[in-house]
Design goal:
The complex is a heterodimer of chains A (about 240) and B (about 325).
Chain A lengths: L3 H14 L1 H22 L10 H31 L2 H6 L5 H31 L7 H25 L3 H18 L11 H6 L4 H14 L7 H21 L4
Helix pairs in contact in A: 1-5, 2-3, 2-5, 3-5, 3-6, 3-7, 3-9, 6-9, 6-10, 9-10
Chain B lengths: L5 E6 L5 E6 L5 E10 L2 E11 L4 E5 L6 H8 L7 E6 L8 H7 E4 L11 H9 L8 H7 L15 H13 L5 E5 L7 H16 L3 E6 L2 H7 L2 E6 L2 E6 L1 H7 L4 E7 L6 H4 L4 E7 L2 E6 L4 H11 L4 E7 L3 H9 L6
Parallel strand pairs in B: 5-9, 5-10, 7-8, 8-9
Antiparallel strand pairs in B: 1-2, 3-4, 3-6, 10-11, 12-14, 12-15, 13-14
Classes of the chains: A mainly alpha (about 240), B alpha/beta (about 325).
């Protein structure tokens, strides 16, 4: 473990110095909240909850996709291309601690993004919450791990940082708009809602929204299955295909 | 152990040959190393030893197998065949032990663009049990005023100096430099040479690769010339050059017409040509120019524009590989 925490704290600082990543993880969700919140308000209309209340789990799903899919994939691919991974690999650090520190930083950022979102929404809109805090945290953990595993697979199969960027954007934007993360599900056409099922992020949105509403886990076995399978398969595939250079 | 003495001929950069009687095992022992990528044989049956306190260099063109060799020895790659011993142990099996004891600078390896110089040192120091004081390292490498500069903003030479600092942070006994000076301007390259000599003078052993012949010739105690995955020559630069048997030339211009018969009788001289005031003397031995100048001075012959042409490692490379050094 020697050096692990130092590496993690350095990576944390470096994340905050990367304006794009920090903006999309920490600031952009707040902008969405304020813009759509001031347009639609937060009148109780769905199961006693308002638009803003329901946007919290959806925007949390967006943050998870931003860090897990975009930041993780691009930062690992870039670190590999620049020889940074190779250089760290040549130190006494164990391979697992190098990769864990990367994931830990992004996980902390995801959690920070979610907490900022909740605090801001609480202060400005006075949000309502019908769920169980621990259930939501567990759902958040599962969703994050699942998306980080996906990010690792994409980082493993991309040859350069640039190709990683293209691949990630091609997945991220459709997912963002068709899963119910950025645009509420109930305004999407029926067909999009049906086909949106093939997008992993749809399952994150559904699970987190359900848990936010206080629905039991048993109502979301499909989402849980999809996310667990994605996590396990992702870990196996990336363990087999991961390259340090 | 003391009985199993080995003799290695090394030389200093002042070109005087000295003999080290080494009572310990070599720092690196490589026997029949082979590494294949698909259908390409990157390293083919390579054997050599590196001794305590020397600067050992591998020269060759890109793709000659230098980096593959150095990375197998560093334990970053697994060889297909052959044995490697670093400090007497297999670097693959004792990887954690080796990582603590050696310092590495990897070819074309960067750091996070926004990482500051001091942060990089502080970070790498945290990986080791008893690291050096990195403030002192910064000073030694002339980076003190760059301590708060981000890696991406550093010049090529500063980046490489930082890489040297990171390679030295664990006070290793053996340091690897892979193409350290590639891409640097001539002045920065010379600064690197001085730094490498300083590192060696502090008692460390250095293994480097380069594709600059002049660098290998001036910096290394012993040089292995690699070509197409094989070591085609290995010795001190002086011995390699002497083994060519190529003669040196002295060319000069006489200030006034004079007979230069005095040069013909010098020992080792094989050819004297005079064309008007231009004179060419060809012969064997490093002392040729001294002998010629002394003989002319004794006769009171005045001259100007003296140049010497001596064979160098580039000529050796051409002779042993059959092709020019090209990038």
């Amino acid at each position: 473990m020697r050096g692990f925490w130092k590496l993690t704290s350095v990576e944390f600082k470096l994340f905050l110095r990367e304006p794009m990543a920090a903006f999309f993880t920490l600031v952009f969700p707040l902008m969405m909240l304020f813009i759509f919140g001031s347009v639609f308000g937060n009148k109780a209309q769905y199961f006693g909850l308002g638009t803003v209340d329901l946007s919290i789990p959806a925007y949390t799903a967006m943050i998870i996709a931003t860090t897990g899919l975009v930041s993780l994939t691009i930062s690992i691919a870039a670190a590999r291309e620049l020889g940074i991974l190779r250089r760290l690999h040549a130190t006494p650090l164990t391979p697992i601690s190098i990769l864990t520190s990367q994931v830990l930083v992004l996980f902390l950022m995801t959690a920070l993004g979610m907490v900022l979102l909740i605090i801001a929404a609480k202060i400005t809109f006075g949000i309502r919450f019908n769920g169980n805090v621990f259930s939501v945290i567990l759902g958040f953990l599962l969703s994050s791990c699942s998306f980080f595993a996906l990010g690792f697979v994409l980082a493993s199969i991309s040859r350069t940082a640039r190709s990683a960027q293209v691949m990630v954007m091609a997945l991220y934007y459709p997912m963002l708009f068709l899963s119910g993360a950025a645009i509420p599900k109930w305004v999407l056409p029926e067909a999009v809602r049906t086909y949106g099922q093939i997008l992993p992020l749809t399952h994150v949105v559904n699970l987190l929204t359900g848990l936010w509403l206080g629905e039991p886990w048993s109502a979301h076995l499909k989402e849980v299955t999809v996310l667990v399978v994605m996590m396990v398969v992702g870990l196996i595939v990336s363990a087999k295909t991961f390259r340090w250079e | 152990m003391l009985g199993a003495g080995r003799i290695a001929v090394l030389s200093t950069n002042t070109k005087t040959t000295r003999i080290f009687k080494l009572v310990s095992e070599p720092v690196i022992q490589v026997e029949h190393l082979r590494k294949v990528y698909g259908s390409t044989i990157a390293v083919d049956d390579v054997s050599f030893e590196v001794y305590q306190g020397e600067i050992f260099g591998m020269v060759g063109t890109n793709g000659a197998g230098k980096t593959t060799s150095i990375e197998c020895i560093e334990g970053l790659r697994q060889q297909d065949r052959g044995s490697i011993r670093v400090f007497g142990v297999d670097p693959q099996k004792e990887i954690h032990d080796i990582r603590r004891k050696v310092g590495v600078q990897l070819q074309e390896s960067q750091l996070q663009p926004r990482l500051k110089v001091w942060e990089a040192l502080d970070l790498f120091a945290s990986f080791y049990e008893s690291p050096l004081d990195w403030e002192k390292l910064l000073e030694q490498l002339g980076l003190t005023d760059k301590r708060n500069t981000a890696f991406a903003v550093l010049s090529g030479g500063q980046k490489q100096r930082l890489q040297i600092a990171l390679a030295l942070i664990n006070d290793p006994q053996l340091v690897f430099f892979d193409e350290l000076t590639t891409g640097l301007d001539p002045q920065a390259r010379r600064t690197m040479w001085d730094l490498i000599r300083t590192v060696r003078d502090s008692g460390k052993t250095i293994f480097l690769t380069t594709h600059f012949m002049d660098e290998a010739e001036r910096l290394c105690d012993r040089v292995a010339i690699m070509d197409k995955g094989k070591i085609v020559a290995l010795d001190t630069p002086e011995n390699l050059i002497q083994s060519l048997g190529v003669e040196s030339r002295v060319v000069l211009t006489l200030k006034e017409p004079h007979d230069i018969a005095c040069c013909r009788s010098l020992s080792g001289v094989t050819l004297v040509e005079q064309n008007g005031d231009r004179v060419l003397v060809q012969g064997k031995g490093e002392m040729l120019v001294v002998e010629v100048v002394t003989a002319l001075a004794k006769e009171g012959i005045r001259f100007s524009d003296l140049r010497t042409e001596q064979p160098n490692l580039e000529d050796v490379f051409l002779a042993v590989t059959g092709h020019e050094m090209k990038d």
